[in-house]
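Quarterly update from the structural biology core.
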Amino acid sequence: MFWRLFITYLVLVILAVGAVGIVILHRGGGQEVLLDLAREVIVAAVAIVLLAVVPAYFLARNFTRPLDALTNGARRLAVGDFAHRIHAGGNRELGGLARTFNTMTDRLSESFKQLEHDREQLRTILSGMVEGVISIDNELRILFANERAGALLDFDPASAVGRKLWEVNRQRSLRELVEKALAEAEPQRQELDYRGSTEKSIAIYASRLPGDALSGAVIVLYDLTELRRLERLRQDFVANVSHELKTPLANIKSSVEVLMDGAVEDPAARGMFLEQIAEQADRQQSLIEDLLSLARIESSEQRLEYIALPVEDAVYACIDRQRTRAETKGLTVNGVALVGSPSDLCVLADEQAFSQILDNLVDNAVKYTPQNGLVTVRWQASTDTVQIEVEDNGIGIPERDLPRVFERFYRVDKARSRDMGGTGLGLAIVKHLIGTMRGQVSVKSELNKGTTFTLILPRAEKSNSHQANAT
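Predicted structure, tokenized:
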């Protein structure tokens, strides 16, 4: 632009000088005068052109400088330099254009900042979701994936962007679902059992993005693993409850039918069947009471009153309650305070709940310890907690069953447990009560050598009269 203007100015000067020279020569006299005049005109024209170079340069420069500034400003705006400002003084029109350009730059800068803020906010929201989210284009190329999606499908979200979906996950059913979502307007949903680093149940929801059919799709992943596990637990629970309630009822019914068929007239048979009816009725009542107790604990309806309970008194009271059953089997049940435990050691717990925990654990130990065995309840104190152990030298628990012993109705040996009159809910109640009282329970066992249950509860001073209700 500059050089075009510069040459244009010079050409105009040359044309003007040339026109003047022609006019002068046209009005000249003889041949000699004409030649002299021509030489003078040429010299004058050259001088004028030389003198016009500098003004032409500055005129062209002055005119093109604002345009260059606008061009440079547009170039810097194109690469994202929104802080750049154009200063085009002098010419009123160009100055107004520069101000308009600067205003446009400010507004673009604000718009881009808002867009970036919204984008980061959206990324933060998507990254914090418990659902996995993946955005893909129409060629199955990943545009975005949050951390949850990577965790569910076992890939790194940062390195997955730009790659094809089937490159980061080889699950054929997932690819087919996404391709179907891209091809159809209706959203697609499917639940699949994913076998990656761990087995999961995942619900996949794929929907084509609005607008152009070639724009892509969004995939939302829901982890249903825990929900399916709870459903299986519920189904098992219903089946177990039905079975446990049905068994004593069947025994009661059969005994009644035998009595009605004539056994009631036989004193010896009548007594045996009546005892069986009473035994099965007690078993059913115990099961129902345990079910109601567990339901109250889990629904937080059972209100606990926390007080300072002397550990030694509670342990020996429990041993007294279990003594008759233990002596029947020839078992020895001892209570032992370990070295360093004060005689007035107390736990902060609910009295009834603490007694129920001890009863369930000692009852289990007595139940599964052979004749002439030994059950020991020992306790010791630390700075803030009290540790209580219930140890027996009974049949023990296989290692594979240890993680499940606190589940409702879970029995290591189902036939033996029913023969011994267990409901299968005692340890589940122990776990829930301990958790409610901010304690911990654990178990270790060796088959045919014995089992040890360990309780850890908050310690309380005997003089502590603090009481608190917990829902």
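The first helix runs from residue 2 to 26.
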